Amino acid sequence: MYLCAMNCEIITIGDELLIGQVIDTNSAYIANRLNEIGIRVTRRTAVGDVPDDMINVLSDASLRASVILMTGGLGPTKDDKTKDVLCDYFGTSLTFNESSFKDLEELFKTRGREMTELNRSQAELPDNCIALQNKLGTAPGMWFDHNDKIYISLPGVPYEMENLMKEQVLPRLKERFKLEAVFHRTIQTTGLAESVLADRIREWESALPPCFKLAYLPAPGIVRLRLTGEGKTYDELKALSEKCIADLRELIGDQIFGYDDERLPEVIGKLLKSQNQTVSVAESCSGGYLAHLITSIAGSSEYFKGGIVPYDNSFKTKLLSVDKELILTKGAVSEEVVIEMARNCRKLFDTDYALSISGIAGPGGATPEKSVGLVWMAIATRDKVQARKFQFGKNRTLNITLTANSALELLRREILGLLNAN
Amino acid sequence: MYLCAMNCEIITIGDELLIGQVIDTNSAYIANRLNEIGIRVTRRTAVGDVPDDMINVLSDASLRASVILMTGGLGPTKDDKTKDVLCDYFGTSLTFNESSFKDLEELFKTRGREMTELNRSQAELPDNCIALQNKLGTAPGMWFDHNDKIYISLPGVPYEMENLMKEQVLPRLKERFKLEAVFHRTIQTTGLAESVLADRIREWESALPPCFKLAYLPAPGIVRLRLTGEGKTYDELKALSEKCIADLRELIGDQIFGYDDERLPEVIGKLLKSQNQTVSVAESCSGGYLAHLITSIAGSSEYFKGGIVPYDNSFKTKLLSVDKELILTKGAVSEEVVIEMARNCRKLFDTDYALSISGIAGPGGATPEKSVGLVWMAIATRDKVQARKFQFGKNRTLNITLTANSALELLRREILGLLNAN
Questions:
Q1: How many helices (H) and strands (E) would you count in chain A?
Q2: C-alpha span between B376 and A167 (Å, rounded)
Q3: Under DSSP, is residue B141 helix (H, G, I), strand (E, B) or coil?
Q4: A 203-242 → B contacts, CB under 8 A
Q5: A377 within 8 A of A285, measured Cβ to Cβ
Q6: Contact A309 B310 (CB under 8 A)
Q7: Interface predicted TM-score of the whole assembly (ipTM), two decimals
Q8: Which parts of B48-129 are beta strand (E)?
Q9: Which of A136, A292, A306 sits opposite B289 (nearest CB)?
């Protein structure tokens, strides 16, 4: 039998979430995957390892949602209380689960490790659950079908939870529910502040069909526009959204760099691959973060040849042949120096493009003329070099992020021939 | 008048949190800062931009908590509904706030930008609030003192929220409440799996004074132990915890790399600075992430000279003088190659230490003999080079993280003379 009214509440369990020691990345992952199959997350609650609070949240959520998905509290140690709480909640008790124990034995065999007594206890599960095999860790997931609601309990370790979602939870949910269409499309933009962007697309926004809702999601250097459609079939929503986005491209086409979860390094990777081109980097104040963003993409070895992080100025000379006198007279953070860095980096790695960066990430390093947040960067191609100056803020982490994102955007614009237009 | 019973619920607002588009880093930051001043976060709830849901969550939270702190929904655009909801909730209405408007004028003057009509509307606030100046953005924070509960509304942009917390919210909370002691100490360990660690310290854990609670927080390559004390004065809890931790060091001293929020790159930075030593890196499969972790620390230019990312194998030869024949016969991912990379990197940058990395991050790049997740790394000092082999898993992102963390740990052990002991 199918259940209807598909909404889910996520409950994350663990004191570490409440004292701020752990950033909850699990909820975002879970929400994304559920959305894709048409289950809406309507609330997320985090509670500590406190049995009474856990029971309360479970009871409240069960009044509103058809799926209740919990993560955390399944470890082998004393502070993990989820299994006991679930037994209380369902009025059941822990029993030794044969199939889970076999899964555990298999896991330890693969890893060539001995099972401890604590690990063995992880095969004890509430007797009304279906055990979900955890191939990447020792805590099994659990599936409860109770009073026409589905309760799911997963471990809090992100890659274990993700594997369980993919292999066990999503297929079972699709089988259990008749799911309706929700359509999301995110448009990724860069180069316009949120309020300027909102002004620019105001009329377009007002003219959106009533089945669509628009949200602005700002991040450092990026504003994402999320279009959500409901109330029609998936195909109708998709077709309608394509028309809306085509109109939007007329207004801000140059600023749109991608769609949905596409990240800038991924977009650049696709562009470079499609043109059979290569890139290298010479980055000082971003300290390897630009190379990291580029190489975070699987397959980046096809177009990324390598990078230099000449953190100490002497290595701008030694590794990138930047004239020592130039650094002395113009300063390491200068147009002239980043131009030399980019030109020589491109030659060194023999790439189609090279990006160079020199700046003051802070908090130290400022001079009377050059304040924290000043960043020069350049892009070299086979026939020219262009430099750009940025003045970011005082926060080191944010400056590193903004610097690397701006360099990627510089590369995107150069590849697409948009650089001189702006 | 002081209020008592200091607990806080955090409410984060925005559809983006429920469809998984944004990872909620704000809650962790807020919880950390509140904990430091003795306010416990007892629940966190995320709801969408849905007025009814927002009102329900506010009402429920006000039954349990003395402080209700909201973030999000304050932008200038249509999807932002927090101010209207707060007016409904308190039975007040929006009025033009002079002091907020002056703050806005100042902000736009500094940035040399024109204020739009949308920005001007951001100075309209519920008439029962105290406006909190947002120096980094256009949405002011709000403070409500209502029926002996404090309600705080902050923008969702992380650095804006953080600045408001520091400059406005925390000082006001300290003034408004009489705060009791909560003591946290986190012990950061590496090198032991959670269950092995738990076995090793079982007796110590059982003998902890009853005012302490212990939690295990696993992350890639790291397990943090969090000790939380309550029910005594701060100084008593601190003294007791120091004794407990001294006992713990007897059991797992080599595995403890730091305390509280200290990250491995920070610990290494302190060690290098204290010994006036320097480091450089040559990293292939980690693609700049190791250099990024090292340079994420303010002041790292004192000890980090630079790095090479020889992503294409030819640059292992060209930049690091690794014998081409060696790469052909042993493979780029081999003990021999990382040893040469580390030795030559150290010479090139003339540093006390050099780390080298070569591996298969995946998903591509595996051979019949070498599977995805195989990583070789080496550390060179002025008189020797030592290599280590790791076999991580199939996940590219996780492999990059584990690789960089393992390299940092290799460096820590070398600096402390622990490397040969293990």
A1: 17, 17
A2: 31
A3: strand
A4: 205, 213-218, 224, 226, 228
A5: no
A6: no
A7: 0.77
A8: 67-71, 94-96, 124-126
A9: A292
Task: Give SS3 for A378.
Answer: strand
Residues near A109 by Cβ (< 8 Å), separated by ≥ 6? none
Residue by residue, DSSP assigns A311-342 as -STHHHHHTT---HHHHHHH-SSSHHHHHHHH
Is residue B60 classed exposed, middle or buried when 0-12, 13-18 and 19+ CB atoms within 10 A define those classes?
middle
CB B366 within 8 A of CB B360: yes
Cα separation, A219 vs A223, whole angstroms = 6
Q: Which of B204, B307, B294, B302 minimizes the C-alpha distance to B253? A: B204
Partners of A48 on chain B (C-beta within 8 Å) are 42
Closest Cβ opposite residue B295 in set A57, A311, A395: A311
**Interchain proximity B44–A41, CB inside 8 Å:** no
- What is the token pair recorded at A256? 């749109």
CA distance A108 to A74: 18
Mean local confidence (pLDDT), B149-161:
94
pLDDT band with cut points at 50, 70 and 90 for residue B120: confident
Residues in chain A with CB shorter than 8 Å from the CB of B402 are none
pTM of the entire predicted model: 0.78
- Give the pLDDT band (50/70/90) at residue B195: confident
Beta bridge partners, B183, equal B229
Please give the helix or strand (H or E) that residue B188 lies within, else none: strand B182-190
Segments of B237-303 assigned E as strands: 256-259, 279-283
DSSP letter (8 states) at residue B201: T
| Cα A257–Cα B365–Cα B388 angle in degrees, nearest 5 | 115
Inter-chain contact A25–B23, Cβ cutoff 8 Å? yes
Task: Write out pLDDT tens, residues B73-95.
Answer: 998 777 789 999 999 999 999 99
User: In what helix (H) or strand (E) does residue A243 lie, and over which residues does it extend?
Assistant: helix A234-252
User: For A9-51, how does the pLDDT look when each residue is reduced to its tens digit (9 = 90+)?
Assistant: 999 999 888 887 778 889 989 998 898 788 989 999 999 999 9
Maximum CA extent, chain B:
79
Interface subset of A 392-421, CB within 8 angstroms of B: 393, 395-398, 400
Nearest to A226 among B21, B218, B289 (CB): B21
Cα distances (angstroms) measured from residue A199 to each of A193, B122, B137: 10, 15, 17
Give the closest-approach CA distance of A418 to chain B in angstroms.
24
What's the Cα-to-Cα distance from A25 to each of A84, B20, B24, B220, B267, rounded to whole Å? 25, 9, 7, 14, 25
**Residue B31 sits at the chain A interface (C-beta within 8 Å):** yes
